[in-house]
Amino acid sequence: MEHEQRSRRRPSPSSDAEDMVTLLAPRLSYFAAVARTEHVTRAAQELNVPQSTLSRAMVRLEQDLGVELFARHGRTVSLTPAGRTFLGSVDRALGEVEKAAESVRADADPESGKVAFGFLHTMGTETVPGLIRAFRADHPRIRFSLVQNYGEAMLEKLRAGELDLCLTSPVPDAPGLVARRLDEQRLRLVVPEDHRLATRKRIRLAETADEVFVTLEPGYGLRRITDDLCAEAGFKPRIAFEGEEAETLRGLVAAGLGVALLPPPAVPRPGVVELAVTGQRAVREIGVAWLDGHPDTPPVAAFKKFLLSRRGRLLPEQAGLE
Hints:
Blueprint (H helix, E strand, L loop, with lengths): L1 H8 L7 H8 L3 H10 L2 H8 L3 H15 L4 E4 L2 E4 L1 H27 L6 E6 L7 H10 L6 E6 L2 H9 L5 E4 L8 E10 L1 E5 L9 E3 L7 E5 L4 H12 L5 E6 L2 H9 L5 E3 L9 E7 L4 E9 L6 H12 L13
Parallel strand pairs: 3-4, 3-5, 8-12, 9-10
Antiparallel strand pairs: 1-2, 5-13, 6-13, 7-11, 7-12
Helix pairs in contact: 3-4, 3-6, 4-5
């Protein structure tokens, strides 16, 4: 009769694996304690649970698995061969859980926790290193996981929980996200040094309607800004090359393959001339974004507060801009 009862309670082969985990997980630590002590009473005392609760949990565990885990000898128990096999896997599983718990506790530590921070490629040379250096003056042990990508990709990582914060442009206005404007960069028209416009210091974008452009790929914030500014100036840019990184575009411009609208470089690039754009507001706004309603760990909260305190002075000085 007992065997029949266990057969009825055993999950069918078609049961979903998650259902089995839901059945077994709460009882694994109980099983490990009984297996280690080989005594239900002592295990119950260690776990600070009633002996009857522990005994029932072990019986139900065996019923759910459909195998005998323990041989019972009065008040003591010993593992069956199936029980020893199960214990090895249970110990590894509980060890992984403990490692995971230690990891998330360490990442949330106010003094030495971790911030997953994303930012645009154009901010990786100078802006982000300077920000982190300034922040760590007061938080020297906080760690960073850094991700460079274009704006839409970082927002997807925010939504997936892979990033805590990101610096991006344009400043997003999207459901489920919170964003704050921090600063802006004036964009320049970059032309080859032997270009017909290279002797100019400033230019109206409408004057470039017949030029060939090199730009970032669709999906990049700077590409959207370029398209919008050209449309505002009355033309659609003729695009010869699309890339993924601003300095690569500068190299293409230097090679005479087109002109580009770009933010200022961290280091001047030979072979190009950079002109101020007049007649319209040619800027890109930089903002910080995070997931709405997502609780911050202490290190994330500290870094977010720091970034917000840099509003209007996030970016290095842009020498030569008018």
